[in-house]
Design goal:
Helices cover 68% and strands 0% of the residues. By secondary structure, the chain is mostly helical. The protein folds into 2 domains: 37 residues, no CATH class; 70 residues. The longest helix is centred in the last third of the chain and has 41 residues.
């Protein structure tokens, strides 16, 4: 629901900026290639954000603008829901990065 009827596609926003493609090379990349560059935490947090936004849309409509307090409360809920999983993902990424660095150093010797 969220992102379909209430949001403009990213390409619309890029065209609105009137930047030539040479100044915005990411706009020329295929969407799948761009998404492969996202960190793992994105795939943990984003679905929860979408869920909470969908719930707000269902309760109030897609043109509702939440108050600062409502937004803070929603952010706190999302953080509590994903905190442990995000920390685990960050630790795994750091370990993988360290392993890659060690492998590169071993190749150089």
């Amino acid at each position: 629901m969220y992102g379909k009827e209430c949001m403009y596609p990213m390409t619309h926003m890029m065209n609105a900026m009137h930047y030539p493609q040479q100044y915005c090379p990411m706009a020329a990349m295929p969407e799948q290639q761009l998404e492969s560059m996202y960190p793992r935490t994105y795939y943990i947090v984003y679905p929860r954000v979408v869920h909470h936004c969908d719930m707000m849309d269902m309760n109030y409509g897609c043109y509702y603008c939440p108050t600062k307090e409502e937004l803070d409360k929603m952010c706190d809920k999302i953080c509590n829901e994903v905190e442990a999983e995000v920390e685990t993902a960050i630790c795994e990424e750091m370990k993988e990065e360290a392993d890659r660095q060690l492998a590169l150093e071993a190749e150089d010797c």
